[in-house]
From TrEMBL:
Pfam families: Acetyltransf_7 (PF13508). Gene3D superfamilies: 3.40.630.30. GO terms for molecular function: acyltransferase activity, transferring groups other than amino-acyl groups. Residues 147-202 form the N-acetyltransferase domain. This is N-acetyltransferase domain-containing protein. InterPro entries: Acyl_CoA_acyltransferase (IPR016181), GNAT_dom (IPR000182), Trichothecene_AcTrans (IPR052523).
């Protein structure tokens, strides 16, 4: 069931109060992903031991999209007469990808300079090559740039299991379906597979990625715009 009075809006650098929204979104994603299997390998430290580094990571992802390459959505709910940020999602539409231009890379480099050199090496030599290979295996060489790509989605713990994430995904899928555009997403959390398959995505590939903190698995999923089996659609 959807939370009453939910409002999904796109956040850009020209949005009034942008700086405040940016920090709210950054903190929300950090909290939402604190226990994600990818987070510790990605940063080398637990959230509670260095929340600022986690915020640097997620701020870089937001900044990269906010260059104009991607789109950032915020889901707001009315609680006791006040609008609260409940969820955030980052998307890349056809023609753009995460880190595929110099402006995005500059934001990414600003983040990676802050992590331990061994973590930076892992990103460069293991994570990003494996991530790109997963996309090629699941979608085909070069196909990802022609799709709507869900890069990040997170819901504040206080609002989880209330339909926030599903509403954000459906908001974008309604637009892409009307244009006949397929979509894709990757996840490193097996429990998320049911969420995505319920929205019409299909698992196309998976890959084990080694890390100093133990191996993790990532899945690549694809959704056809003519999907007719979306839960609640």
């Amino acid at each position: 069931m959807l939370v009453p009075s939910m409002n999904i809006v796109e956040i850009t650098k020209s949005t009034p109060g942008f700086d405040t929204y940016l920090e709210e979104m950054t903190g929300l994603i950090s909290i939402a992903f604190a226990s994600n299997p990818l987070t510790l390998p990605a940063l080398g430290v637990e959230y509670e031991n260095n929340p600022e580094l986690h915020n640097d990571f997620n701020r870089a992802q937001l900044y990269a999209a906010l260059t104009g390459a991607g789109r950032v959505l915020g889901a707001f709910v009315n609680t006791d007469g006040h609008e609260r940020l409940a969820g955030v999602s980052i998307w890349y539409e056809p023609g753009n990808q995460f880190l595929d231009d110099n402006e995005q890379l500059n934001h990414w480099t600003s983040f990676t300079r802050k992590v331990d050199p061994k973590i930076r090496q892992w990103w460069d030599e293991v994570m990003l090559p494996c991530y790109n290979q997963l996309s090629r295996e699941g979608l085909g060489d070069g196909a990802k740039k022609n799709l709507l790509h869900l890069q990040v989605i997170g819901t504040h713990p206080e609002f989880q299991q209330q339909g926030i994430g599903k509403a954000m995904v459906k908001h974008m899928l309604a637009q892409s379906d009307s244009r006949g555009i397929a979509s894709c997403v990757e996840t490193s959390k097996e429990s998320n597979l049911l969420f995505y398959t319920g929205l019409g995505y299909e698992v196309k590939a998976n890959r084990t990625i080694p890390s100093p903190y133990g191996d993790l698995t990532m899945w690549c999923l694809y959704r056809d715009p003519s999907c007719d089996k979306c839960e609640g659609a």
